[in-house]
């Protein structure tokens, strides 16, 4: 097995190990529960749609009005008040932080060889 194949095998093993962690399992469970809750799912879909619309306007050089900004803030608050959305968001945040830590460790490993 050459070096690249070995590296890919290790990456696959890392992925499997990540999938076995409580952080990942909590994230997947919260994601599943969110999708099963119509109200929570619709809130998140609306939030993503509104954010994308506002981002698209900004990229096109169109100013987002204060009313539109307020609508987004109001929808974000509504999402946070929904227990399922909040649970999913927290689990997602924990998982993203975990993945950033893993990436940081990989970076440190690379840097240790470069030095």
Automatic annotation (TrEMBL):
SUPFAM superfamilies: YheA/YmcA-like. Pfam families: Com_YlbF. It comes from the Bacteria. This is YlbF family regulator. It comes from Desulfosporosinus orientis (strain ATCC 19365 / DSM 765 / NCIMB 8382 / VKM B-1628 / Singapore I).
């Amino acid at each position: 097995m050459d070096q690249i194949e070995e590296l890919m095998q290790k990456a696959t093993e890392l992925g499997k190990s990540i999938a076995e962690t409580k952080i990942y399992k909590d994230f997947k469970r919260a994601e599943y529960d969110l999708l099963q809750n119509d109200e929570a799912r619709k809130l998140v879909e609306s939030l993503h749609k509104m954010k994308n619309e506002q981002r698209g306007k900004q990229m096109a050089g169109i100013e987002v009005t204060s009313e539109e900004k307020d609508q987004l803030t109001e929808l974000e608050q509504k999402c946070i008040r929904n227990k399922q959305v909040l649970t999913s968001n927290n689990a997602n945040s924990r998982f993203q932080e975990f993945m950033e830590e893993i990436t940081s460790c990989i970076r440190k490993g690379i840097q240790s060889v470069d030095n």
